[in-house]
Amino acid sequence: MTAIDVGIQRRDILSPDAQALIAALNGELASTYPEEGATHFRLDPSEVAEGIGAFLVAFRAGVPVGCGAVRRIDARTGELKRMYVTPEVRGQGVGQALLVALQAEARRLGLARVVLETGVRQARALSLYERNGFARIAPFGEYVGSPLSVCMAKDL
User: In angstroms, what CA-CA distances link 41 with 4, 22, 37, 54, 92?
Assistant: First the structure.
């Protein structure tokens, strides 16, 4: 399969597809980062409501295989959150397609910059973001003081 086979749709974060993907993401992050306080799972439905943010789900052959969100954090900046691709389709363009779609959503919201946090143990995620023009920045918000966090930003 190729990235062309990926369909990306805006979904309610409380939908069954979204909740299943988020649960898988949370489980993977909890096992990758078992340290106390190492994970940042919070994303409220109000933060991805129309006009404020977006929650997207990627599908292949009708099966949800990835997700991601963008939430406004100030007048010009959005944060990418909850990026996840199921293990069986990693390396097949799903993450790239989600990242492109999330940046388009950020632009649609009138944002000029996106920031994100990922973990030091997520080499594939770091590589994806770097290939797409994201640069490392100082930790922000809830990630300040987190030794396992890598924060990045990109001007749109």
Answer: 30, 9, 10, 16, 25
For the chain, which residues make up each domain, given as ranges?
Answer: 3-155
Q: For the beta carbon of residue 115, count every other beta carbon within 10 angstroms.
A: 18
pLDDT tens profile 38-84? 666 779 999 999 999 999 999 999 999 999 999 999 999 999 999 99
Residue appearing with tokens 């100030």: 74
Beta-ladder partners of 118: 150
- Measured CA to CA, the distance from residue 52 to residue 20 in angstroms comes to 23
What are the pLDDT digits (tens) for 74-125?
Answer: 999 999 999 999 999 999 999 999 999 999 999 999 999 999 999 999 999 9
- State mean pLDDT over 21-37: 89
CATH superfamily, with its number, for domain 3-155? Gcn5-related N-acetyltransferase (GNAT) (3.40.630.30)
Cα distance between residue 156 and residue 111, in whole Å = 8
Residue 1 has pLDDT above 50, yes or no: no
Q: Nearest-CA neighbor of 64 among 82, 85, 42?
A: 85
